[in-house]
Design goal:
- The complex is a heterodimer of chains A (about 325) and B (about 425).
- In chain A, about 35% of the residues lie in helices and about 20% in strands.
- With about 325 residues, chain A is α/β, with parallel strands linked by helices.
- Chain A folds into 2 domains: about 1-185, 3-Layer(aba) Sandwich (Rossmann fold), CATH 3.40.50.970; about 195-320, Rossmann fold (3-Layer(aba) Sandwich).
- A 7-stranded mixed beta sheet of chain A has the order 3-2-4-5-7-6-12, with helices on both faces. Chain A has a 5-stranded mixed beta sheet with strand order 9-11-10-13-14, sandwiched between helices.
- Chain A is globular.
- Chain B is α+β, with helices and mostly antiparallel strands.
- In chain B, the strands form 5 sheets. A 6-stranded mixed beta sheet of chain B has the order 10-19-18-17-13-16. Chain B has a 4-stranded antiparallel beta sheet with strand order 1-8-6-3, with no helix packed on it.
- In chain B, strand 11 (about 280-285) and strand 12 (about 285-290) form a beta hairpin.
- The longest helix of chain B has 16 residues, at about 320-335.
- Classes of the chains: A alpha/beta (about 325), B alpha+beta (about 425).
- The interface between A and B is small, with 8 and 12 residues.
Chain lengths: ~325, ~425
């Protein structure tokens, strides 16, 4: 295995899938000549040419629609949004076209497209550019929502997303692009819909995804010094949710904290909590707690921004609460 | 000056002793070396003698209580002397007063604040006081037969959580929900077993405790041993064939349910348990529950594993009733439509893999039950029969026993009765 960055792992997945299948093409703002706002598409224009690496105008609704149409006639577009904040303009194409086409055509027309780009907050990009939208898309029947936390998962899941015959919303972590990790060489595919235990433990389950996986792991490390052995479960796919992984872990630990970057109301964690209390009520020894971003537009002020984000200290506090321990 | 009498280590391995009987009563004059009480240790019943002279002022524990070594059991001093700030007992006490049991502990409900009633003044009845417990704590309590009413919760607002049950189990004996607390046994005898009701709880004697502790250390939480016997099934075969033949052409729905070998085995097990109640029991950590009712769990394979629906009062049911009920339970088990009360509460289990051509196997005990019978296939074999080798239909039965409850001979006697019944199925109607 070689150590590569999250950004290069995504680049490998794109390159390998474009080599493997001539119907795969990449389209979006600055993906070609500029090689991507986050350099995910580095080298692809040179290798595959302007027919398969297509620079677009700043027209999210337009190129998302072109992507849906291309997918309907048999191509496999990968549509890059510079960030998911800009994809708000394209939501109609995702929700009303991509997600519903197979259903409304009675199964005759599918949309094998991937919509990808960074989500969540970075540092001091302020309220309009610091948002986690996974719960919006996960709400829609017909869309899959995938959110890798590590380079290996980023590569393996992007390959699965491109090969999937249905529209996949692929949300990358803006702060994860530079993170490094081991990535298996050659054909490395991670199936959609499988969570992953990033750290085994028996005292409490911390459910997380994307950037909050590292938050949960840091909290778990700190808790271990205090004698608490936390299990960190990375959802990897938000929809379809790997309910059996969640339930098995909670049945083992009897306590659960769900961490996410987004806002609390109707968030991903709310769905996880609902599933747990319905399926393994009798395993619970404490109410399930959630750690989320604060229920406000993201502040620009550095200290306020820090205070608004889910962090290890908040996770530790919630874990102590579900374990009925004093917070130290 | 008063002297405390403590539970002494009367054997090298003794950690606690059961005070069987007080030999000196409160108010009695005692001399050094007098026998104060009889104490059952992990090995034998021994004497606890006075190490100081004077008047026995107080029994700190009652007969029947189990006391850890070094804990005080009585106080010796001068008549009228105060015992830990209490009014002393002595010459002035009324005869018979010493026999008065201490007042019952206050109901534990007092410890919890009353539940706030919702929408007060709405004319609605006040909500009954509710025990707050986590779902896991409730499940554990139900499994162990613990009464949550007596447990102090350490969670927010007194919520009982799983760890409180660990503390409670260590501190106090389990009580069955709704059952009256067990009165202190009369001196010198174990608690009188209740003769009516669905079961009888028997406190663990010291030897049973030692057996349980030692064997659990040896081979895991349920120290299991296995007994195997082989049964001649010729007569059961004939009996079943005759029963099934008699059903040919019969119209009523119940007549269309063919009696299976498993039905006959369940019925036989139930009747054999009636004769061997020692095998019809639950291990309850600090006591053994001997069931007067006989509820046979039958293992049913389902898509994702197995489940054990229960034939209740199987000893009182006819083969026809057992056949009808087991068919219904098994089919609903496979559809996952059993209600919880239909697959819990068994007192003994039967698991049959004979239909899958298994000769014999060992089944895993379904706690808190103390025994499970593993039934193999009925196979034709050459065996010695009445002085000659004959081909007979034979079946192997293996019983897994929880050694904390069932000893080797106890299990063997049960199996012998069962074997006798199957070899002479007329016993089923005896």
């Amino acid at each position: 295995m070689t150590v590569v960055t999250y950004r290069d792992a995504l680049n490998q997945a794109l390159r390998e899938e474009m080599q493997r299948d001539p119907s795969v093409f990449l389209m979006g703002e600055e993906v070609g000549v500029y090689q991507g706002a986050y350099k995910v598409s580095r080298g692809l224009l040179d290798e595959f040419g302007p027919m398969r690496v297509v620079d677009t105008p700043i027209t999210e609704l337009g190129f998302a629609g072109v992507g849906v149409g291309a997918a309907m006639v048999g191509l496999r577009p990968v549509i890059e949004f510079m960030t998911w904040n800009f994809a708000l303009l394209a939501v109609d194409q995702l929700v009303n076209s991509a997600a519903k086409m197979r259903y409304m055509s009675n199964g005759q027309v599918g949309v094998p497209a991937v919509f990808r780009g960074p989500g969540g907050s970075a540092l001091q990009l302020a309220a309009q550019h610091s948002q986690a939208f996974e719960s919006w898309y996960a709400h829609i029947p017909g869309l899959k929502v995938v959110m890798p936390a590590t380079p290996a998962d980023a590569k393996g899941l992007l390959k699965s997303a491109i090969r999937d015959d249905n529209p996949v919303v692929f949300i990358e972590g803006e702060m994860l692009y530079n993170t490094k990790g081991e990535v298996p060489e050659g054909e490395h595919v991670v199936p959609i819909g499988q969570a992953d235990v990033k750290r085994e433990g028996g005292d409490v389950t911390i459910v997380c995804h994307s950037k909050t996986v590292s938050v949960a792991l840091k909290a778990a490390e700190q808790l271990a010094k205090d004698g608490v052995n936390a299990e960190v479960l990375d959802l990897r796919t938000i929809r379809p949710l790997d309910t059996s992984a969640v339930l098995n872990s909670v049945a083992k630990t009897h306590r659960c904290v769900v961490v996410e970057e987004g806002w609390p109301f109707a968030g991903v964690g709310a769905q996880v909590v609902d599933t747990i209390q319905r399926e393994v009520f009798d395993e619970l020894d404490a109410p399930i707690l959630r750690v989320t971003g604060a229920d406000v537009p993201m502040p620009y002020n550095k200290l306020l921004e820090k205070a608004a984000k889910a962090d290890p200290a908040k996770v530790i506090e919630a874990v102590n609460q579900v374990l009925y321990r004093e917070n130290k | 000056m008063t002297t405390k009498v403590v539970m002494e280590a009367l054997s090298p391995t003794m950690e606690e002793g059961r005070l069987v009987e007080w030999k000196k009563q409160e108010g009695d004059v005692v001399a050094v070396g007098d026998v104060l009480a009889e104490v059952e240790t992990d090995k034998a019943v021994m004497e606890l003698v006075a190490r100081a002279g004077g008047t026995l002022l107080k029994h700190i524990v009652e007969a029947g209580a189990t006391v850890p070594v070094s804990e005080p059991v009585a106080v010796i001093g001068e008549p009228g002397e105060a015992v830990d700030g209490q009014r002393g007992v002595g010459a002035a006490r009324q005869p018979g007063e010493g026999a008065t049991p201490p007042p019952a502990p206050a109901p534990t409900e007092q410890r919890r604040p009353p539940a706030p009633s919702l929408r007060e003044g709405n004319g609605a009845k006040a909500a009954p006081t509710r025990v707050k417990a986590s779902p896991l704590a409730r499940r554990i309590a139900a499994e162990r037969g613990l009464d949550l009413g007596g447990v102090e919760g350490t969670g927010p607002e007194g919520r009982i959580v799983a760890r409180d049950l660990e503390t409670a189990a260590a501190a106090a004996p389990a009580r069955s929900t709704g059952a009256p607390p067990i009165a202190a046994p009369p001196p010198g005898r174990p608690a009188a077993p209740r003769v009516s009701g669905p079961y009888t709880d028997v406190p663990l004697s010291q030897i049973r405790k030692t057996i349980a502790k030692r064997l659990s250390q040896s081979i895991g939480p349920i120290p299991t041993f296995y007994l195997t016997t082989e049964v001649d099934m010729e007569r059961v075969w004939e009996a079943r064939a005759a029963l099934v033949a008699g059903q040919q052409g019969a119209g009523a729905a119940w007549q269309q349910v063919k009696v299976s070998f498993n039905d006959i085995i369940i019925k036989s097990v139930a009747l054999a348990l009636r004769q061997h109640p020692a095998c019809n029991a639950w291990w309850q950590d600090d006591h053994i529950r001997y069931w007067n009712d006989i509820h046979v769990s039958m293992a049913v394979a389902v898509e994702e594993g197995l489940i054990t629906p229960v034939i209740r009062n199987a000893d009182q049911k006819s083969l026809r009733e057992i056949a009808t009920e087991s068919r219904d339970l098994a089919s609903r088990a496979r559809e996952r439509r059993l209600k919880p009360e239909e697959y819990t509460g068994g007192t003994f289990s039967v698991s049959n893999l004979g239909m899958l051509d298994i000769d014999e196997f060992t089944a895993v005990i379904n706690p808190p039950e103390a025994g499970i019978l593993a039934v193999g296939r009925i196979a034709e074999k050459p065996v010695a029969h009445e002085g000659a080798v004959a081909v007979r239909r034979r079946m192997r039965l293996t019983m897994s026993c929880d050694h904390r409850v069932i000893d080797g001979a106890t299990g063997a006697e049960f199996l012998k009765t069962l074997k006798g019944m199957l070899e002479n199925p007329l016993a089923l109607v005896w």
